[in-house]
Amino acid sequence: MTVAMEKPEKTGTAEPPAPARRERGINRSVVVAAILLVWFVLFAVLRGRQTLSLAAADLTDLHRWFNDVNDSIGANRNSNPLFLYFFNEIRLVIDSLVTFVQELISQPAPGRPVPQIGWLGVVGIAGYVSWAAGNWRVALLTVAGFTFLGLQGLWQESMDTLALTVSAVCVALLFAIPLGVWAGLSDRFNRVVTPFLDFMQTMPTFVYLAPLTLFFLIGPASATIATAIYAAPPAIRITAHAIRSVPQTTVEAADSMGATRRQALLKVLLPMSRRTVVMGVNQTIMAALAMVTIAALIDAPGLGKTVVQALQSLDVGTAFNAGLAIVVMAIVLDRVTTAASGRAETARGSDSPFLKWRRHLLAAGAMMAAVLVYLSHTYLWAAEFPGEGGIGSSIAKTAADVTTWAQDNLSGLTNAFRDALTNGLLNPFQTLLTDSPWWLVGAALVGLGAVLGGWRAGATAAVCVGLLVATGVWSDAMTTLASTAVATVLVMLLGVVLGVWMGRSALVDRLLRPSLDAAQVMPPFVYLVPFLALFGATRFTAIVAAIVYAAPVAIKIIADGVRAVPETTVEAAMSTGCNTWQIITKVQLPMSRGALTLATNQGLIYVLSMVVVGGLVGAGALGYDVVAGFSQGQLYGKGLAAGLAIVLLGVMFDRITQAAARRAGA
User: Fold this and answer.
1) Exposed e or buried b for every residue in 340-359, given b needs 16+ CB within 10 A?
2) Is 461 left (phi over 0), alpha (psi -120 to 50) or beta?
3) What mean pLDDT do residues 24-28 have?
4) For tag attachment on the chain, is the N or C end more exposed, with fewer CB atoms within 10 Å?
5) Within the chain, how many helices (H) and strands (E) appear?
């Protein structure tokens, strides 16, 4: 992307390169148009033939084989050495860790009707840690946030979510930090691990659940393992980046003083990478919280289970109250870790007299937190959160009343919007994908992949198409593809409008960016609740939620791309008499092609993840197959195949758009 933005400065006013680039763009556009034209013509002739459709209750041989494997594993789980001495042992260790943390803060401990540390002690510890790691403002936010969770009547559910998040983050960091350091020190290992990290971050959260239940059963242990695996890649990638970002001159200076590799790592590389590594921990915590809530589908306790049960019963009030609790917890955890990453720099730049007394104040705070822990361990009033959660009941009732009002008074507007988009865009595109012969759709996808991303992207698309056919859920995959494509187009429209606005105006950027950052903190479940109230349980709900979920990242990428266009180029265009519209369409957007393609890549991945989660609220297709596989034993194999199909769609989207982004930046 940077190269693409620098090239116009190097070429200046030289004419030959520009026509050549336009010619290549026209040729590619012509080929794409030809592929689409042939597809439409053959669709009109062959519509409804060889569509590989499959009824909801029907199974293929692959699905039955998956079911047989699941049954066989269940029957031999306690006799097979691989399970006895490996998988079962891992499950036992993780289960012991989760149980320990739960008995510490959320679930009754042995011989006690309450946890070892009650609500007052948890609030005291959370406030103290926030102050020690960040500052007093973050500590106040933490105390207020945790107290609010209790006032909502969701203290135990919130602590269950926190217990699973803490357990998963500890497990993830135990492996992620060493692997990240290794990747930062070794080019060879970095090259090996990067494709795996790309693959893991491409996979939607749903996909991690089914395979892990096959080996670890359902429950908190499987949820924690799935969360740890999902949350580890950001920490590995960011830690490696932090190690590699240390100035080489600093490393050489340490070597010249006789430092060993271990001393250089512990005394130079890690201390100088601390801020960036803490930001990696922040990303890991956010990913873990998002995954823990979705892991409610495999019987993980906490707020996620409350949201899932409320969504399935269309209880918007309860879902909103629990979703708000998830948002509060996410904001608190995000602010604490963000403040921790910048505390050292803030302290160095501050002349506050309190800094010289900080150690004494921290010691006093630790003693106060210890007193609160003792009280919460000893006295019932300090262990059980007081009250009946009246604020939560009021929030749920208000949300339910607002939902009823919206459905009574806004249904005409919302239904008209839903029907216009569904009938005008979604249904025709879905019909094209699901009613075309499978080989025609496959050929079109391979051709588009090759034209947009090159032969490697085309080969990847061909492999993914072949495997999608083998999964036996081709029709559902095409339905999911239709929803994903439509949502991504709308995300990009929104991203271009707001991204260009932010990129051209520093004031707009300052106003919008905090909201976009906050939106990226929220777990996917939260987005479903308000749109469920507006549009009911339909696939359109999932699409709108996906648009809102994916838009922030696309907007920020496009804004950064537009802002990176050299000011001299914009001034040159203005001097030739170009108006604002011409500058945007003829200069800034063309020179931001790399950012636009990258935004499309990220938008597709985010949208796919959310559309699949939308299977909980009527989105159907692959998301429904996965959910049904968890709840109906005979459909487990089909759910597992649907999870594989989601992975294949994600890989195909990712490889094509990444290759297209590289081409745009070339």
Assistant:
1) bbebeeeeeeeeeeeeeeee
2) alpha
3) 59
4) C
5) 32, 0
Q: Which of 10-14, 46-50, 148-152, 292-296 has the lowest mean pLDDT?
A: 10-14
Query: Mind giving me the DSSP string for 423-459?
Result: IIIIHHHHHHHHHS-HHHHHHHHHHHHHHHH-HHHHH
Token pair for 4: 């693409």
Torsion of CA 457, 199, 326, 492, to 10 degrees: -10
SS (H, E, C) 89-121: HHHHHHHHHHHHHHHHHCCCCCCCCCCCCCHHH
- Is 581 in contact with 493 (CB distance < 8 Å)? no
Token look-up 């990240």 returns 180
Amino acid sitting at position 334: D
Cα distance between residue 452 and residue 662, in whole Å? 10
Residue-wise pLDDT for 466-505, tens only, equals 999 999 999 999 999 998 889 999 999 999 999 999 988 8
What separation in angstroms does the CA of 12 have from each of 17, 23, 522, 569?
10, 19, 44, 9
What token pair was written down for 380? 């019932």
Q: What is the DSSP string of 299-344?
A: T--SHHHHHHHHHHTT-HHHHHHHHHHHHHHHHHHHHHHHHHHHHH
For residue 466, what is the enclosing H or E element?
Answer: helix 455-471
Q: What is the pLDDT of residues 42-66, one digit of tens each?
A: 999 999 888 988 887 888 999 999 9
End-to-end, the C-alpha distance of the chain in Å comes to: 8
Contacts 24+ apart (CB under 8 A), 105-109: 105/159, 105/162, 105/163, 106/156, 106/159, 106/160, 106/162, 106/163, 107/156, 107/160
**Shortest CA distance to 287 belongs to which of 226, 215, 217?**
226
The answer to whether 250 and 193 have CB atoms below 8 angstroms apart is: no
Name the 3-class secondary structure at 642: helix
Angle at 518 between CA 156 and CA 503, to 5 degrees: 170
State the Cα–Cα distance between residues 135 and 344, nearest whole angstrom.
Answer: 11
Alpha helices in 379-437 (DSSP H): 380-383, 390-409, 411-421, 427-435
pLDDT at 244: 82
Nearest partner of 317 among 389, 386, 384, judged by Cα = 389
Number of Cβ within 10 Å of residue 641's Cβ equals 28
Q: Looking at this protein, which amino acid is placed at residue 578?
A: C
For position 174, what pLDDT does the model report? 92
Highest mean pLDDT: which range of 170-174, 200-204, 574-578: 170-174
The dihedral built from the CA positions of residue 647, 648, 653 and 658, taken in this order, carries a sign that is positive
Tokens 């107290």 sit on residue: 147
**Other Cβ atoms closer than 10 A to 483:** 29
- Are 105 and 165 spatial neighbours (Cβ–Cβ below 8 Å)? no
Half-sphere exposure of 142 (CA within 13 A, CB side): 26
